């Protein structure tokens, strides 16, 4: 036999709120990762940077940059201007 094909008739769209469980899981995991990043990783990296700035390789780099002639390394000096100014203030206090 010949099968009859019905025409598609769209129904009315009814918006529904997403399920609460998965939504809370997404928000909780996002908040957890952000909290770990802000409360654990950032302070740790700041400590490491402070050590490196005072005694490590970054200290040597800043010394080289500070003592470079005025016309050279302008972009680097601009980028690290705050750190270089702080080093100058600390040196003047010593």
How does this model look, in words?
This protein is mostly helical. 69% of the residues lie in helices and 0% in strands. The protein has helices at residues 20-55, 57-66, 74-79, 81-93. The longest helix is centred in the middle third of the chain and has 36 residues, at 20-55.
Short account of what is shown:
This protein has 4 helices and no strands.
Main features:
94 residues; mainly alpha; 4 helices; elongated
Instruction: Summarize the amount of helix as a percent range.
Output: 55-70%
Q: How many helix segments?
A: 4
Give the overall shape. elongated
Strand element count: 0
Report low-confidence residues grouped into runs of 5 or more: none
Rg on CA atoms, Å? 30 Å
Distance between the termini: 102 Å
Order of helices and strands: HHHH
| Whole-number mean pLDDT | 90
Structural class: mainly alpha
| Percentage beta strand | under 5%
Instruction: Sketch the major β-sheet.
Output: none
């Amino acid at each position: 036999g010949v099968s009859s094909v019905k025409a598609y008739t769209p129904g009315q769209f009814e918006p529904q709120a997403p399920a609460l469980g998965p939504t809370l899981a997404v928000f909780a995991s996002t908040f957890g990762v952000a909290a770990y990043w802000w409360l654990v990783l950032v302070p740790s990296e700041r400590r490491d940077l402070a050590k490196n700035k005072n005694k490590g390789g970054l200290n040597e780099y800043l010394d080289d940059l500070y003592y470079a002639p005025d016309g050279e390394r302008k972009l680097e000096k601009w980028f690290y201007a705050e750190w270089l100014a702080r080093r100058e203030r600390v040196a003047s206090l010593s």
